[in-house]
């Protein structure tokens, strides 16, 4: 009996490790046991990096309320693959209409410190969070993510960040927001309640479709360059500041600010 109990304990304590060394995250382990060493039962799933550097969802994560994060990390240089699953607020499960929370402090994926750098997030969706969809720091890479109906920014990153191939729709403030020099390319940014894309000095904004946001389409500093974007129907205007590097279409015209 003692050996059986010991075996059961070791089974529960061992992280779900795929054959390629990636640690698995799913709703069952998040709620019941914790998904790997350093993470306890209940949301948020907590990543301190000690269990490994690569993480992959194997189910949707259903976050219980608007004040709770889906994934919270306190480390640098990790990768989080949503694997075409969703991090979704419980109030938005099954919703086909706007279910943005009216308040809250919980984000889909969030850092604990501005010193957490070099984190990548890819391939999935984040919906209905009480704060940000994604809130991560310097040198981050966010690719192929759909963020919608989050109360604040859909995607928020900072210096050296790359946001590429994402869809940010109907978030409560900016679709994509970068505090610093970033590269934002190939994103679709629609109907957000603030600016479509907001970025810092020295940034490159290229090949995005930015439509029907309630602020400016592109809100840029003087030394950010923008090229090859399609910008239309934004309430406060197409572009403020920035350097037009050519190939942009603004409200159906090749003449952009």
Q: What is the topology?
A:
Layout: H1 2-13, E1 23-25, H2 27-32, E2 45-47, E3 54-57, E4 61-63, E5 71-73, E6 79-89, E7 109-111, E8 120-127, E9 134-135, E10 141-148, E11 155-158, E12 162-164, E13 167-169, E14 176-179, E15 183-185, E16 188-190, E17 197-198, E18 204-206, E19 209-211, E20 216-219, E21 225-227, E22 230-232, E23 237-240, E24 243-244, E25 249-250
Parallel strand pairs: 1-3, 2-5, 3-6, 4-6, 5-7, 6-8, 7-9, 8-10, 9-11, 10-12, 10-13, 11-14, 12-15, 13-16, 14-17, 15-18, 16-19, 17-20, 18-21, 19-22, 20-23, 21-24, 22-25
Which fold name corresponds to the CATH topology? Answer: Pectate Lyase C-like
Nearest-angstrom radius of gyration? Answer: 19 Å
> How many domains?
1
- Helical/strand content category: mainly beta
Strand content: 35-45%
Q: Topology as H/E string?
A: HEHEEEEEEEEEEEEEEEEEEEEEEEE
Flag low-confidence runs.
Answer: 1-14
Distance between the termini: 76 Å
CATH class: Mainly Beta
- Gross geometry: globular
Largest sheet: 16 strands, parallel
What is the CATH-assigned architecture? 3 Solenoid
What fraction, in percent, of the residue positions are helical? Answer: under 10%
The tally of strands reads 25
Q: What is the structure about, briefly put?
A:
This protein is mainly β and 257 residues long. Helices cover 7% and strands 37% of the residues.
What does this protein look like?
The strands form two sheets. This protein has a 16-stranded parallel β-sheet that branches. Strands 2-5-7-9-11-14-17-20-23 form a nine-stranded parallel β-sheet, with no helix packed on it. The chain has helices at 2-13, 27-32; strands at 23-25, 45-47, 54-57, 61-63, 71-73, 79-89, 109-111, 120-127, 134-135, 141-148, 155-158, 162-164, 167-169, 176-179, 183-185, 188-190, 197-198, 204-206, 209-211, 216-219, 225-227, 230-232, 237-240, 243-244, 249-250. The radius of gyration is 19 Å and the shape is globular. The protein has 257 residues and is mainly β. It has one domain (2-250): Pectate Lyase C-like (3 Solenoid), CATH 2.160.20. The termini are far apart. Residues 1-14 have low confidence and may be disordered.
